[in-house]
Amino acid sequence: MGLFNVTHPAFFLLTGIPGLESSQIWLAGPLCVMYAVALGGNAVILQAVRVEPSLHEPMYYFLSLLSFSDVAMSMATLPTVLRTFCLNARNIDFHACLIQMFLIHSFSMMESGILLAMSFDRYVAICDPLRYATVLTNEVIAGMGLVVIARSFVTLFPLPFLIKRLPICRSNVLSHSYCLHPDMMKLACADITINSIYGLFVLISTFGMDLLCIFLSYVLILRSVMAIASHEERLKALNTCVAHILAVLAFYVPMIGVSTVHRFGKNAPRYIHVVLSNVYLFVPPVLNPLTYSAKTKEIRRAIVRVFHRIEM
């Protein structure tokens, strides 16, 4: 089937939360607060890492990459979500929807890759601390960051074209207040096997492998920590991983829930799909800066110094 001779709607209609259409305006306030926390909190961390020499270390470089991906994810979803909930403006241009879909999935994959890089950082710091400075040099960190970014965009580059090859003629109403690949492909009145297989391949080969490698890294970390004789030293070593573990849980638990419901929960109420998808996109960017600020004293001190400089 040709790429440019199929039927596409001029625009899609976005959806808020089914059954709560009349109350959506009241959700705009909490959503604005979440976006403000996500954008403001991550921007503060980026600024702290940039200006504080004490944070010019591998762990905090990776944290700044995580904050960047969270800011980018929030910016990718903010326009349509707030238009849908605040103004009830539901329409989005077909090509704009493709771009938003690509950006959301790309930045999500980028965050997964960054969490994997951060787990490698913790593994080297705890299991081989004497080689930490020689293994994680600035060149290695830059290379890992470029690989994570390149993987995200290259792997997901086919998605918009896989959607464009499909005739969309069943409906133009999407299930969320933003555009996702599984949501869009279900509107096609043609065989979506290629889209479904490619989506599953991407999910397993990137997110699945990242999660497996993170799990294995923590198995090795725990084995190394248990070999430490001092109980206090064990707790100190594990404490450096708490913020990262919470970030991993905040990202992967909602994502696994969304994937499970999409593929196996066809009879689940529609609002379950919507709520889980919103949690998956909105919660990690909000929790990550709060978690790292609360659990990492170096970040707290740097943030205090940043605000002190602003006041002066």
Topology (SSEs and partners):
Layout: E1 11-13, H1 24-51, H2 58-86, E2 91-93, H3 94-127, H4 132-135, H5 138-156, H6 158-164, H7 181-185, H8 193-226, H9 231-239, H10 242-264, H11 270-295, H12 297-311
Antiparallel strand pairs: 1-2
Could you characterize the architecture of this molecule?
By secondary structure, this protein is an all-alpha fold. Helix content is 75%, strand content 2%. It has twelve helices and two strands, in the order βααβαααααααααα. It has helices at residues 24-51, 58-86, 94-127, 132-135, 138-156, 158-164, 181-185, 193-226, 231-239, 242-264, 270-295, 297-311; strands at residues 11-13, 91-93. The chain has a two-stranded antiparallel ribbon with strand order 1-2. The mean pLDDT is 87. The chain crosses the membrane at residues 25-48, 60-82, 94-120, 140-163, 209-229, 241-259, 271-291.
The N- to C-terminal Cα distance equals 64 Å
Mind summarizing the main beta sheet? Answer: 2 strands, antiparallel
Work out the strand percent: under 5%
Unreliable stretches: none
The percent range for helix content is: over 70%
Shape: globular
- What is the helix/strand order? EHHEHHHHHHHHHH
The strand count comes to: 2
Across the major sheet, the strand order is 1-2
